[in-house]
Amino acid sequence: SPDRAAPERAPRIYTRTGDSGFSSTFTGERRPKGDRIFEALGATDELSSAIGLAGEFGSEKGHTFVDQLHKVQCMLQDVGSNLATPLSSAREAHRKRTSFSEKPVLELEQWIDSYSEQLPPLRTFILPSGGRSSAALHFSRAVCRRAERCVVPLVQAGEADPNVAKYLNRLSDYLFVLARYAAMKEGKEEKIYIKPEP
């Protein structure tokens, strides 16, 4: 009877399928874990985690841009789907499910322009600083640059959509501008580069 049905078990987190040093792409292809596709996926995952941390700091300060950061994290899931679907082995059905358009790139550009208009002009190099929200956004920007460096070779090899690399490029600019905006809104001082005395 339904009353006596055994409780459903949660699926196991571990699968043991990667113990031999290989993992699967979305297309089912098995590749070494050191493959550049998994390097790019790992960097993108790390980026989302860094943005999540920045979002938590921003939320503590009541910043309205936190919703944008959540949307970015969702877009990074789509970035990962595209990267996990190497075009050399993807069928048309795979490509349709994981395609990445230019629309998110254009949205980032709009956000960048909006925040840039509110900031004082940048006349010197600034260091990652300006309070916890700002510093975490600067850290996210640095991780984003690394993710972009991992993705560009995949795009150049025809394995990933060029819009994925464009998105990461604009995202690092967005995170930089947002870091400055967070410091300004919180009234925190941005530390500037001072050339050491010889």
UniProtKB/TrEMBL annotation:
The Swiss-Prot or TrEMBL record describes its family as follows: Belongs to the Cob(I)alamin adenosyltransferase family.
User: Region annotation Disordered: residue ranges?
Assistant: 1-30
Q: Which terms does the record give in the GO molecular function aspect? A: ATP binding; corrinoid adenosyltransferase activity
Do you know which Pfam families this protein is assigned to? Cob_adeno_trans
The record describes the protein's role as: Converts cob(I)alamin to adenosylcobalamin (adenosylcob(III)alamin), a coenzyme for methylmalonyl-CoA mutase, therefore participates in the final step of the vitamin B12 conversion. Generates adenosylcobalamin (AdoCbl) and directly delivers the cofactor to MUT in a transfer that is stimulated by ATP-binding to MMAB and gated by MMAA.
Q: What catalytic activity is recorded?
A: cob(I)alamin-[corrinoid adenosyltransferase] + ATP = apo-[corrinoid adenosyltransferase] + adenosylcob(III)alamin + triphosphate
PANTHER family noted in UniProt? CORRINOID ADENOSYLTRANSFERASE (PTHR12213), CORRINOID ADENOSYLTRANSFERASE MMAB (PTHR12213:SF0)
- Superkingdom of origin: Eukaryota
Listed Basic and acidic residues bias regions: 1-11
The protein in question is named Corrinoid adenosyltransferase MMAB
Q: Any one Gene Ontology biological process term?
A: cobalamin metabolic process
Instruction: Give start and end of each Cobalamin adenosyltransferase-like domain.
Output: 13-182
What organism does this protein naturally occur in? Ptilonorhynchus violaceus (Satin bowerbird)
In terms of SUPFAM superfamilies, this protein maps to: Cobalamin adenosyltransferase-like (SSF89028)
- What keywords sit in the KW lines? ATP-binding, Nucleotide-binding, Transferase
Subunit (UniProt): Homotrimer.
Q: Per the record, where are the segments of Polar residues compositional bias?
A: 17-27
Q: Which InterPro entries match?
A: CblAdoTrfase-like (IPR016030), CblAdoTrfase-like_sf (IPR036451), PduO-typ (IPR029499)
